[in-house]
Structure formats: C-alpha cells, structure tokens
Amino acid sequence: MANIFGNTDNDNSAVLWDYLFNVDEGRKNLGGEMPVIVYRMLEYSMRDVLTSMYGKEKMIEIIRSAGEKTGREFYSRCLDGSLPLNDFLAQVQQKLIDLKIGILRFEKFDEETGHAVLTVSEDLDCSGFPSIGETVCNYDEGFLAGILKAYTKKEYIVVEIDCWGTGERVCRFDAKVVLDK
Question: Which residues cross the membrane (predicted)?
C-alpha cells in the first residue's frame, strides 16, 4: 500500500496535499462545506490530546508547526506569489473570505522591515469563545507565518496578541521577520 503522506522527512514531497483538493468527486451530495463546530471539534480534541500527551508548550509548537506547513502549501497551491505586495495581500484577504476562514485586515505592513500587524475577525478558530485568559489561535499563527515566509522568502514568527480567548472581539497578530543571530 502506498504511503499517502509522502516522505514525511522531505517537506517537498507532501503527496497527501494532492488529495485534499478532490472534494467535488468524493462529496457529490454533501459538497465541500461543513459547520464550523465540526472543524472546532477536530482542532480542540487534537489540542486536548496533544496537551495530555506532551504538555501545553509542545502542543502549541505542534499546532503552530502544522499551521505553518498549511500556510506554505496554501501559498503554493492557492495564491499567486508573483503579485506585487499590495495585490498579494488583497488576494490573501479575499481567499480567506472565500474559504470562510475569517476576515483578514492588515493594520500595518512595513515593507522595509517586514513587520506586520494583522487582524482576523469572525475567525474560524475562536470567534464566539468566552474569555478564558489566553490566546488560542496557534494554528493561525503558523498559517500566517507560512504564507508570509513563502511570499517574502524570510523567516517569520507570528504571535497572537488579542483573541476572543482574552476577551477581545477580534484576533490580532504581530508578525516579525526573524533576524539572523
């Protein structure tokens, strides 16, 4: 039996990603959409299990890494990286709306330093959550970092600074280029 996950040691041979986009053939009756609650059940059960097995910090690292991988794949399969910056950012905004991931806004993007502050309203991961005293959108942190890294060819760290989980009504992310040490 073929390994549909590809060679997991080589990030460039992710065969599994080729199968993700064949939704129309496999879901002729139900289609490609599902309720947000189903996505959240998957995400938060994974967070819970990973925390139980490895601890909270490792769970965050794993979820963020998965988001970054997805961001890079999303960039290569769904976005036009040849666009000038403003057009590229507009394209990302529209794709996230089209896919019902959230409404992305760029509060700031410094082309010289790469520093960006982004918000996502109606975020798939947490919109509607009660205030629990912490941010929870680690997957989004990685996802946004993956897109920015793929487009700019620079290493990014993205940290959520506001979240429904902290009592805010929008997710806000601080994105910085990692400078060589």
Answer: none
By CB atoms closer than 10 A (0-12, 13-18, 19+), residue 133 is exposed
Please, how many CA atoms are within 13 Å of residue 73, restricted to the half-sphere of its CB? Answer: 18
Dig out the tokens for 101 from the structure: 């991931």
- pTM (2 d.p.): 0.90
Phi and psi at residue 46, to the nearest 5°:
-65, -45
Residue 181 confidence class, pLDDT cut points 50, 70, 90: low
d(CA 136, CA 101): 15
Q: What is the pLDDT of residues 133-157, one digit of tens each?
A: 999 999 999 999 999 999 999 999 9
H runs (alpha helix) in 9-157: 16-20, 23-26, 36-54, 56-78, 85-98, 138-152
For 95-134, what is each residue's pLDDT tens digit?
Answer: 999 999 999 999 999 999 999 999 999 999 999 999 999 9
In three-state secondary structure terms, 174 is strand
CA distance 64 to 145: 9
Phi, then psi, of 28 in degrees rounded to 5: -65, -30
